[in-house]
Specification:
CATH architecture of the largest domain: Sandwich
Number of strands: 20
Strand content: 25-35%
CATH class of the largest domain: Mainly Beta
Shape: globular
CATH superfamily of the largest domain: Cupredoxins -  blue copper proteins
Helix content: under 10%
Oligomer: single chain
Strand order of the largest sheet: 11-10-13-18-15-16
Largest sheet: 6 strands, mixed
Structural class: mainly beta
Order of helices and strands: HHEEEEEEHEEHEEHEEEEEEEEEEH
CATH topology of the largest domain: Immunoglobulin-like
């Protein structure tokens, strides 16, 4: 577990945060940053039936970054039924909760939504073992972008491989396409992604040079009726009449997104070069806008955009499964600036505005201000 705060990425240390913000005290850490028959998916899927016997569910933690290279190229993912608090407080339309999700976890880590960020280097192979521990339903894991063997594609209807409860399967995932990509369950995809089974994996090119500050940002919209239905509540979810009502950045809704440990603030210092890897794991476009900064989109879906084709902009629309990497210089008047989806209904918690798919660029120089302390109060940061 790294001693850093902010969105998954470089961040700053807790010591520096407390020093800069003037928020003293001790804060509890909220979280870390098989072959066989080929039945039709519907015929064996227990996903449509809420499980009533799973007892008390754990609460998800923020996603951690797993350096797979440092683990000898191996990682084990498993699935954990859990409850997910997008914004547990009462401010700004809260609480916003998903009473049941199916969360990925890596090795002995904590379950998270989105799942852990898997990071490797160009030219290496990842051996990803999926251990189906949730006891109720089959799963698979599908990785975007990289070219792999047919049997490792993670689609049960075309590979003949699904992972039933209690089974394990290992996928060999070559790191042969650099960039930021996504992975997700490809069994009953429409339902399993909406239950939280998605995440980012990152392939760094050889000789990769990180920016001064580098962050990962995963976007998702939810129809909470599905999560309520799976939790056994009285809810009527219809996949053909999906009505998103919850909008998250790295699994959290504003103002929880600004929480320095549980959320995803983009913490910068004046003059920093900032790189943000954005990934849309939802089913809707999300035009992401950053206040008071101009950025360039340097990569799309793992492909590098030639410098001659780039331009300065302040909004980029990310389609479903799309990945955009943006870069900018932290050259604004040191303050606190929103980064949000510009579909304004996505920047709400129910009928309360602001909320939802909003985070912020927070200058370290602005942390020792009354407005920052007020935002920390809204976010539920108790120091």
């Amino acid at each position: 577990m790294e001693d850093q705060i902010g969105a998954p990425g470089s961040g700053i240390s807790r010591r520096d945060f407390v020093k800069a913000s003037g928020l003293g005290g001790t804060v509890a850490l909220a979280g870390c940053t098989a072959p066989g028959e080929v039945p039709t998916e519907e015929s064996v899927d227990a996903s449509t039936t809420p499980a009533q016997s799973e007892g008390d569910l754990p609460t998800t933690s923020p996603p951690e970054i797993v350096n797979v290279d440092e683990q000898g190229g191996e990682v084990t993912l498993s699935s954990v039924p859990a409850k997910h608090e997008a914004h547990p407080g009462k401010s700004m339309g809260g609480p916003v909760e998903l009473p049941k999700v199916w969360a990925f976890k890596a090795d002995d880590g904590e379950p998270s939504v989105p799942g852990p960020i898997l990071r490797t280097t160009e030219g290496e192979d990842m051996e990803v073992t999926f251990d189906n521990t949730d006891g109720m339903r089959p799963h698979t894991v599908h990785f975007h972008a990289v070219q792999k063997q047919w049997e490792d594609d993670g689609v049960p209807t075309t590979t003949g491989i699904r992972i039933d409860p209690g089974e394990k399967h290992t996928y060999t995932i070559p790191a042969n396409v650099t960039g930021t990509h996504l992975y997700h369950c490809h069994y009953q995809t429409h339902r399993h992604i909406d239950m939280g089974m998605y995440g980012i994996f990152r392939v760094d090119p050889k000789g990769y040079e990180p920016a001064d500050k580098e962050y990962f940002m995963t976007l998702k919209e939810w129809d909470s009726r599905l999560n309520q239905q799976m939790a056994g509540m009285d809810a009527n979810y219809d996949v053909r009449n999906r009505r998103p009502d919850t909008f998250t950045v790295n699994g959290k809704s504003a103002p929880r997104t600004l929480h320095p440990e549980d959320g995803s603030p983009i913490i910068v210092e004046q003059g920093d070069t900032v790189r943000i890897h954005m990934c849309n794991n939802g089913y809707m476009d999300h035009p992401m806008h950053i206040h008071n900064h101009r950025f360039q989109v340097t990569h799309k879906d793992g492909g590098k955009i030639p410098e001659a084709a780039r331009h300065d902009q302040d909004i980029t629309s990310i389609p479903p499964a799309g990945r955009h990497t943006i870069e900018f210089e932290a050259d604004a008047d040191p303050g606190i600036y929103l980064a949000h989806c510009h579909k304004v209904s996505h920047a709400m918690n129910g009928t309360a505005y602001p909320g939802g798919m909003i985070t912020g660029v927070v200058y370290k120089e602005a942390m020792d201000t009354d407005i920052f302390k007020q935002l920390m109060d809204y976010a539920g940061y108790e120091a």
